[in-house]
Write a structure and sequence with these properties.
single chain; 250 residues; alpha+beta; 2 domains; four-stranded antiparallel beta sheet
Length: 250
């Protein structure tokens, strides 16, 4: 197990998102008993994935339950499930050699985050289809960052009490920002994100409530992520003291 420690470290995101099969999950759980770094990384991915799912999830429409119940009588029942042959045992040492698969991670996050989108699409036409496509693109980007072998995570707390997380990947050249317990910005105000490049703060997007956004700009050579309260529409440079200036891990 220790011989394959480097391989094991790449499975933290897949473990946190439930993308490992039973054998791999048990092997990685055993590895966690002796690896503090993996325990911390897996816990961070679990917390981040939960925030991401909550950030983009949407309740199904009120009529969805009645429509499902009305359609039940027309749905053919599946036949009984017959147990198949037991799967072959994996080769020794092979369980922890497989790297996290971005597609599996994307499926795990999307399943939690897009709950009622399929029902909406059938009922609400092109507008909601476009919203679903935009949400899926964001989830794809977020999942790719989470699954990147060089993904690094940092947590912080803003001056207004909001809990924040940034996950960045130089290989993906992307970073995602998540906020929880973020107070409403107030009338005519918005929260603006920044990337600190040396002594220069460059606009990196907006976040108006609890949720997750993909930062704009290039995080690869940024030293920190900032958060300020700005006039609606944003500012080219910060006009207020930072609520958060969180150093990105090297």
């Amino acid at each position: 197990m220790n011989h394959h420690a480097n391989d094991a470290h790449t499975l933290a995101a897949a473990y946190a998102l439930g993308a490992l099969d039973d054998g791999e999950r048990q092997a990685f759980a055993d590895h966690l008993q002796a690896c503090e770094a993996c325990r911390q990384e897996a816990a961070e991915f679990e917390a981040t994935a939960a925030r991401l799912a909550a950030a983009v999830s949407q309740p199904p429409p009120a009529a969805a339950k009645a429509q499902v119940m009305a359609a039940i009588d027309e749905v053919r029942q599946l036949p009984p499930r017959v147990p198949g042959p037991a799967p072959a045992a994996p080769a020794p040492g092979g369980i922890l050699r497989r790297r996290a698969v971005p597609l599996a991670l994307a499926a795990s996050v999307a399943a939690a985050a897009l709950g009622g989108v399929a029902v909406w699409q059938a009922q609400n036409g092109q507008d909601l289809k476009q919203q679903a496509r935009q949400a899926q693109r964001q989830l794809d980007t977020v999942s790719a960052v989470l699954a990147a072998p060089d993904a690094r995570t940092v947590h912080g707390r803003a001056a207004n009490g909001a809990l924040t997380t940034v996950v960045a990947s130089d290989r993906q050249n992307k970073a995602v920002f998540t906020a929880a317990d973020l107070p409403a910005p107030g009338a005519g105000k918005t929260y603006q994100l920044w990337l600190a490049h040396g002594g220069t703060m460059r606009p990196a997007g907006f976040i108006d409530h609890d949720g997750t956004v993909v930062l704009t700009g290039n995080p690869a050579d940024a030293g920190a992520v900032g958060l300020t309260l700005e006039p609606a529409g944003g500012s080219p440079q910060p006009t207020t003291d930072p609520l958060l200036l969180m150093t990105l891990p090297a």
